[in-house]
Specification:
The complex is a heterodimer.
Chain A lengths: L1 H9 L1 H20 L1 H29 L1 H17 L24 E11 L5 E6 L12 E4 L2 E9 L4 E8 L3 E6 L5 E5 L7 E5 L12 E4 L11 E9 L8 E6 L8 E7 L2 H13 L1
Antiparallel strand pairs in A: 1-2, 1-12, 2-5, 3-4, 3-12, 4-5, 6-7, 6-9, 7-8, 8-11, 9-10, 10-11
Chain B lengths: L4 H18 L16 H4 L7 H19 L4 H20 L13 H4 L1 H24 L5 H27 L6
Helix pairs in contact in B: 1-3, 3-4, 4-6, 6-7
The chains are: A alpha+beta, B mainly alpha.
């Protein structure tokens, strides 16, 4: 024991150095998103590589089961062709049995009123409560996300559009996964701004911006636009990114309303966790 | 020893403020960030015990970190600098060793000694800092270049600040 203390006293300088250095590196990894993501991803690529090696060996031994799976999948895909469904008046009716764990339902709707020249722009759709549309559902067009349903009457729904300064949408860079909030500044109907992307992130003009999927309204990966202009002010820790919207709001006719079937479950669970 | 306390307290506050208020906003051509605050560690008295050196290094680095939103980055680099300091001093010791009661500044040991001593430590600090910041070795050369060019400017500022404080003390 005495030798141990003597050892500590003799090398206290180096030992203290290692302790303090470990503490600071821990701080770096804990609080700086960039270092954390590279650290985790490099360890991920190691484990990922290992799994891939293992899988390529195991795969060969399981060819019979894989073939069976594939033929089953073929049958399933064939049965989900449009011909296999009875089309109702306004949407595809997916038969809801226990084997189909459907998460999102898409309902088509038509835009019957639209504005782009105000600070608070809203869109009106020709479907409402009777067609299964409820507040807080996401609205997309074939070119990307459009907005979020705000109010519904029996036959109509109003949508708060992305070019409305009251709406913030959680968005991320498709390539790197850094996420921030998308906000309109009330200026041009073709551009919005993406905030909270840290300066460590690598942002280039042309990068795709997609929904992050954190808000439980939009599924992950719905296109929002691409980076149009990047600016990093001196001493600022966040980028100022201008995003060119993929949707042309002047020319919007048909949209789809996303019904997130398991949304209530997610929201309730998250609320319960927050209340604890 | 105690009489030096107010002077170092002033040094700490003054150089940290200069760093976070002025120098952190300087970013010449995206390559060069001078980090003057480490002069506080460089000029601590010879008799400073090792543990105090490390703790002061951590504190001064952490304060700069808090102001620039990079927890741990500067702290780890400055602790590394504090760790190297005793070895650098031993390496650079003049033939008749350091005089008691003197401090490692340009005023006591001359321009060339101070240059050698501080370049070594500043370069070590900057390399550590920039590589922690980039956190990969894929851009090794450009990171190295950033560290070296920043070292140059930090050295420039250190020399200038040493010239200012030189007048107050009698030479050796």
């Amino acid at each position: 024991m005495r030798n141990f203390f003597r050892f500590i006293v003799k090398y206290h300088f180096a030992i203290l150095f290692f302790i303090i250095e470990a503490v600071s590196l821990l701080l770096v990894l804990n609080y700086n998103a960039y270092q954390r993501s590279t650290f985790l991803s490099s360890s991920g690529s190691f484990t990922g590589g290992l799994y891939q090696k293992y899988n390529s060996g195991a795969e060969y031994l399981m060819l019979r089961e894989i073939n069976e799976d594939l033929s089953r999948e073929n049958a399933y895909l064939r049965s989900s062709l449009p011909e296999s469904f009875k089309a109702s008046r306004d949407y595809f009716n997916v038969i809801n049995d226990s084997t189909s764990q459907q998460e999102y339902l898409y309902r088509s709707a038509r835009v019957i009123n639209n504005s782009t020249n105000r600070r608070f722009n809203y869109i009106t759709l020709n479907k409402g409560k009777l067609n299964g549309i409820h507040p807080e559902m996401g609205v997309i067009s074939n070119r990307g996300a459009v907005g979020i349903v705000k109010n519904v009457s029996d036959n109509y729904a109003t949508v708060i559009s992305i070019i409305n300064t009251r709406l913030k949408i959680s968005a991320k860079l498709k390539a790197s996964g850094f996420f921030g909030s998308l906000e309109w500044d009330g200026d041009s109907y073709q551009h919005v701004y993406l905030h909270d992307i840290p300066r460590h992130a690598n942002v280039n003009v042309g990068d795709l911006i997609v929904t992050s999927g954190y808000s439980s309204i939009f599924p992950e990966g719905i296109l929002l636009g691409n980076v149009d202009h990047v600016e990093l002010e001196k001493g600022a820790s966040f980028y100022r990114i201008r995003v060119k919207l993929s949707v042309d709001y002047k020319n919007l006719a048909f949209v789809e309303v996303i019904d997130h079937i398991t949304r209530n479950e997610q929201v309730e669970l998250e609320k319960e966790t927050e209340d604890d | 020893m105690i009489s030096l306390l107010p002077r170092y307290l002033f040094n700490f506050v003054f150089f940290t403020l200069i760093q976070v208020l002025v120098l952190n906003n300087i970013q010449l051509s995206g390559y060069i960030n001078p980090y003057l605050y480490i002069i506080f560690i460089l000029t601590l008295p010879f008799e400073t015990p090792g543990w105090l050196l490390l703790l002061l290094g951590f504190t001064s680095g952490m304060v700069v970190d808090i102001f620039s939103n990079t927890p741990g980055m500067h702290a780890s680099a400055t602790v590394f600098l504090a760790f190297l300091r005793p070895y650098a001093l031993r390496l650079m010791a003049p033939r008749d060793d350091y005089q008691p009661g003197s401090i490692p500044t340009m005023g006591y040991y001359g321009f060339s000694w101070f240059m050698r001593y501080s370049i070594l430590l500043v370069l070590a600090h900057h390399l550590w800092l920039f590589f922690i910041e980039v956190f990969s070795i894929t851009h090794f050369f450009s990171t190295f270049l950033r560290a070296v060019s920043s070292t140059f400017f930090t050295m420039l500022l250190i020399i200038i600040s040493q010239l200012f404080s030189q007048g107050k003390k009698q030479g050796r």
